[in-house]
């Protein structure tokens, strides 16, 4: 697919979901256009400034009028709640795990009084950032997500799992162990015992390779939440678009590589 066809396919699906969202009379973009731009940013990764140059140079004609870069970024942050429209309901079995994201190099720790990330280890390497926790349904779609600083363990997310106690049985690795007890719906799986957990590893791998999510460049909590909300919406939208384009594919197949920008 060409990039233009990818943008059109994403917009068509987003517009179907958001067709009842009204346009502000002073806004240049319709809600579905704004969310489409946010999804493209989440898919392309990198700095927002470079993304805007690419969008304005090559694909501005696909939208009703692009606002200034800073105004566009603020609009994405203000309307982050719209990304919740693309989350799915939990299935009988769900899978959870956390994904470390780097914000700054360790040598820069403490240089800013407003530093968001905290120091922790990712694959044995010290870094400053946070943990992105996700809950996936049987088909690998994102049900819920959350964010904690990197110095907090996986068990800090257990209360979120408990909030789904009567809706799903959740599979997790041993990193979610807690000496004070775990939620009744949380099942800890030893390595190699439950292949169902491989879906979360596949999702994280795709987000790393296609979206370059291991490092993001936002320095304010509100914009970090915006970015992660857009990434979650992006993955679910691309999952749906992929299966619309390939109706004969297994419903369990995960692939976003053909949408890479």
Structure description:
- The structure is a single chain.
- The chain has 261 residues and is of the alpha/beta class.
- It has 2 domains: 1-86 and 220-261, no CATH class; 93-218, Nucleotidyltransferase, domain 5 (2-Layer Sandwich).
- Helix content is 36%, strand content 17%.
- It contains 7 helices and 6 strands.
- Strand 2 and strand 3 form a beta hairpin.
- The radius of gyration is 19 Å and the shape is globular.
- The mean pLDDT is 93.
State the gist of this model.
The chain is built from seven helices and six strands.
Question: Topology, please?
Answer:
Elements (H helix, E strand, L loop, with lengths): L2 H15 L13 H14 L3 H11 L10 H10 L14 E12 L13 E5 L2 E12 L5 E8 L8 H5 L6 E4 L13 E3 L9 H14 L9 H25 L16
Parallel strand pairs: 1-5, 5-6
Antiparallel strand pairs: 1-3, 2-3, 3-4
């Amino acid at each position: 697919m060409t990039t233009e066809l990818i943008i059109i396919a994403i917009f068509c699906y987003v517009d179907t979901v958001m067709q009842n969202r009204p346009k502000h009379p002073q806004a240049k973009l319709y809600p579905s256009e704004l969310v489409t731009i946010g999804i493209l940013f989440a898919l392309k990764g990198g700095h927002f400034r470079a993304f805007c140059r690419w969008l304005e140079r090559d694909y501005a004609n696909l939208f009703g009028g692009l606002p200034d870069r800073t105004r566009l970024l603020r609009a994405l942050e203000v309307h982050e709640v719209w990304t919740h429209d693309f989350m799915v309901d939990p299935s009988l079995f769900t899978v959870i795990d956390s994904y470390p994201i780097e914000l700054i190099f360790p040598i820069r720790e403490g240089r800013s009084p407003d530093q968001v990330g905290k120091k922790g280890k990712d694959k044995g390497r010290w870094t400053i950032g946070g943990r992105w926790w996700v809950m996936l349904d049987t088909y690998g779609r994102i049900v819920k997500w959350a964010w904690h600083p990197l110095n907090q363990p996986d068990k800090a997310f257990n209360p979120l799992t408990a909030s789904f106690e009567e809706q799903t049985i959740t599979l997790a690795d041993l990193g979610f162990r807690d000496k004070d007890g775990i939620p009744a719906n949380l099942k800890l799986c030893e390595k190699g015992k439950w292949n169902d957990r491989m879906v979360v590893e596949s999702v994280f791998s795709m987000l790393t390779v296609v979206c370059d999510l291991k490092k993001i460049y936002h320095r304010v909590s509100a914009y970090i939440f915006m970015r992660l909300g857009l990434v979650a919406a992006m993955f679910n939208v691309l999952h749906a678009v992929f299966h619309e384009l390939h109706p004969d594919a297994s419903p369990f197949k995960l692939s976003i590589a053909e949408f890479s920008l």
